[in-house]
Amino acid sequence: MAITVNIYYRGKDGNAVKFAKEMIASGIVDKIRKEKGNIRYDYFLPLNESDTVLLIDSWKDQTALDIHHKSPVMAQIVALREKYDLHMKVERYISDDNEVSELDKSFIRK
User: Fold this and answer.
1) What whole-number distance in Å separates Cα of residue 108 and Cα of residue 65?
2) What is the mean pLDDT of residues 67-95?
3) What does the pLDDT average to over 12-34?
4) Distance CA 52, CA 66 (A)
């Protein structure tokens, strides 16, 4: 049962993009991707919201996510959020571990 968290970072004057770039350049993103239980940690730019960066953050289970939240890297993330004065909207999803249905597969072009 994987847990995926979508975090929408919003900031003025391009601060959300600056935040994501600093997260990558500083090596924080690489550290997170190497944490036990991390499945995905990727940033995206929503086309309809120029002041927003979307983080898709996925973990093996709640235990892995809890360990991440208690890790020293979280203090670095929080400091950068403050530096760039970011506000967040969070969505949380839990996978059902079922395979894609045959009907759903019919809509997927490979």
Assistant:
1) 30
2) 97
3) 98
4) 26
Strands in 38-44's sheet, in edge-to-edge order, are 38-44, 52-59, 3-10, 87-94
**Other C-beta atoms within 10 Å of 61: how many?**
12
One-character DSSP codes across 86-106: -EEEEEEEE---PPPPHHHHT
Helix, strand, coil percent content, the chain, rounded in steps of 5: 40, 30, 30
Give residues with Cβ within 8 angstroms of 42, minimum separation 6.
Answer: 55, 56
Q: Provide the whole-model pTM.
A: 0.90
Confidence at residue 98, expressed as pLDDT on a 0 to 100 scale = 76
**CA 29/CA 77 separation, integer angstroms:** 10
